[in-house]
Queue: 2 jobs
Job 1
Amino acid sequence: MHTPLCRHASGEPVDYARRALEVGLTEIGFSDHSPMARDNFDDWRMRNDQLDEYVEKVCKAQREFPQLTIRLALEVDYLPGHEDWIRDLAARHPWDYFIGSVHYVSDDWAVDSPYKLSEWKRRDTFEVWSVYFDRLTMAAETGLFEIIGHADLPKKFGHRPTRDCSPLYEKFLTAAKQHNCAIELNTAGLRKDCREIYPSREILQLAFAKGVPITFASDAHAPEEVGMNFAEAIQLAREVGYTECCRFDQRRRNTAKF
């Protein structure tokens, strides 16, 4: 879940927490887009000097809603060569978890950006997915993340390869299993052009077969999105075979039935 500090979300953490209680949740986590080493890297994340402010906003929600377990986390972009920066972020606050996500398949193209849709016309779709999953695999291999986010993000606008991607998925999920990474069932995909939870049933089936654990995420950018479509996500997970999901406390994982 996000905050206005990322410049593309609305509502304060206290508003998200209030909504979480309204929809019957007992535990939530905030994982806004982390700063990059350069504040001008892009315009959809908090600045470096806002990280403490972000933590205080989450702490305020924790104080105002003691009946709700509220976790402090970050969604951290993975780019090759940025590992030291991620370690630096990890040392700054007592985080409960890091979600590692890949948005960029090159230094200046985030595949989910609505402002860069023309890039898809210049690139082969399978090539884009290959680069994306290579980077997702590298993210899992770093051991820097508890969760890997929206594992098939390139489908957001409906761009799907005609070639078989299962070898890409297999390699990524093997790395996730080996390095103790969970993957999330992210319901935001249902609100995008792809109209499908991230990741697809195919990927989730492979994940279950490999023993990769899962979490549930609404990827809320507004209070009304908190917990949105969780019933569908739970149904999908159960159909694939999952009966447990992960929770994190101080970067330690435990499991809960659902």
Job 2
Amino acid sequence: MLRAIFMIAMLGLFAVGMVFKLFGGLVGLTFFIIGLAIKVLIVGGLLYFGIRVLSPGTAQRLRERFAGTRLTRY
């Protein structure tokens, strides 16, 4: 009986380890994607700021083009 309990405990530890390894990979992938999105936002913001300083007319056209929802544009 003690052997059966020990085997069930070992199987449970193995299963928990596998689940945490899978979720650990998903959490790592999620943080990688979030970090990449933040970098893209920073670079895009800097580019837009540069366009706004150097060419306000172009920045105004960009704002008009991407402002609003899809329903109000059509």
